[in-house]
TrEMBL record:
GO terms for molecular function: methyltransferase activity. InterPro entries: Methyltransf_25 (IPR041698), SAM-dependent_MTases_sf (IPR029063). CDD domains: AdoMet_MTases (cd02440). The keyword Transferase applies. This is Class I SAM-dependent methyltransferase. Signal peptide: none annotated. One of its GO terms (biological process) is methylation. The lineage of its organism: Bacteria, Bacillati, Actinomycetota, Actinomycetes, Streptosporangiales.
Length: 215
């Protein structure tokens, strides 16, 4: 899957600058921050438990989740991102890994946060990734997905000359993401549209793995 290596290479190349640019992002984008807070509240409402920030980048969102009382750890495809996350947030756990094959036990998590990380997954691989999220969540567990809204894919590049690397970023309609989430076995609970009047709107979707049926 060349798109996996392409994404890893881009974020290894961008890691230092990206970490600097996004360090105060959740203080500037308060509606996005509110989504993280709501996710933490939803996990707390089911008596807490481990939470994975999948595609955590430099770990800023993972750190906020921990400040909010969540037992949060981070997973990212980019070793350079994980190195920064471990250095800047030494109290949290961070591991290199892929959302296409999460090295986590079935039903081991109370929550999964995929904060603008599913945007690098091509359409044909999204169902498998959402299947991984469903597998690692316990019944009643919470899923939150943030993404760019649109109907196109764009190339993100870094470097120059022989060192240029690129990856596709996918923009999607909330209805399409919601359909994928339902097909993976989740119940969609809410969708929030962000900055609908701006050139680059976003969306946050909250869903839940249905609780086990009583026997």
């Amino acid at each position: 899957m060349t798109w996996l290596s392409d994404t890893r290479n881009v974020y290894d190349a961008l890691a230092v600058g990206y970490a600097d640019e996004t360090r105060d992002l959740l203080e500037r984008l308060l509606h996005v921050r509110a989504g993280v807070v709501l996710f933490a509240d939803l996990v707390r409402a089911i008596d807490g438990g481990p939470v994975a920030d999948v595609g955590c980048g430099p770990g800023h969102t993972t750190a906020l989740l921990r400040e909010l009382g969540a037992d949060a750890s981070g997973i990212d495809l980019s070793p350079a991102m994980i190195e920064i996350a471990r250095r800047e947030h030494p109290g949290a756990r961070f591991e290199v890994g892929s959302m296409t094959d999460l090295q986590l036990a079935d039903g081991s998590l109370a929550g999964v946060l995929a904060w603008w990380s599913l945007i690098y997954i091509p359409d044909e691989a999204v169902p498998g990734v959402l299947g991984q999220f469903h597998r690692v969540l316990r019944p009643g567990g919470v899923l939150a997905v943030g993404f760019h809204v649109g109907d196109e894919s764009k190339i993100e590049t870094s470097g120059d000359g022989d060192q240029t690397v690129h990856a596709y970023v996918h923009y999607r309609q909330p209805s399409r993401v919601a359909d994928w989430v339902r097909e993976a076995g989740f119940t969609v609970e809410a969708q929030h549209l962000l900055s609908p009047d701006e050139p680059k709107p976003g969306a946050i979707l909250f869903a839940r793995r249905p609780a086990a049926s009583p026997r």
